[in-house]
Amino acid sequence: MCAFSNEAELEQLLEKHPELLGEEEESIAFVDRQIPLEAGKLDLLFVNSDGLPIVVETKRSMNPDARRQVIGQVIDYLASLTDR
Predict the structure, then answer these.
(1) Above 80 in pLDDT, residue 14?
(2) 53, 47 Cβ separation under 8 angstroms
């Protein structure tokens, strides 16, 4: 198990190594971090080779947020991105 002292450390790792997101078959390009949206701050935004957005919300295992809450947060971020 890998331990991160904070979520920013995990974000930096993913920014430098997007292949860790598990998309080996297609290329993923980093776009930006901590993007202010109407729904809140999006941790990381990538795009795949088809130009589709990949939204990443980082949470440390000790974070008490429920998975359902995090999934709702990601859906809100995607909705905010498509409304622009």
Answers:
(1) yes
(2) yes
Q: CA 21 to CA 34: how far, in whole Å?
A: 18
Q: pLDDT tens digit string along 15-71?
A: 998 888 876 656 889 999 999 988 889 999 999 888 888 899 887 766 666 677 778
Q: What is the dihedral of CA 67, 22, 16, 54, to 10 degrees?
A: -60
- Amino acid identity at 1: M
Query: Helices (DSSP H) in the chain: which residue ranges?
Result: 7-16, 67-82
Helix runs in 1-66, H state only: 7-16
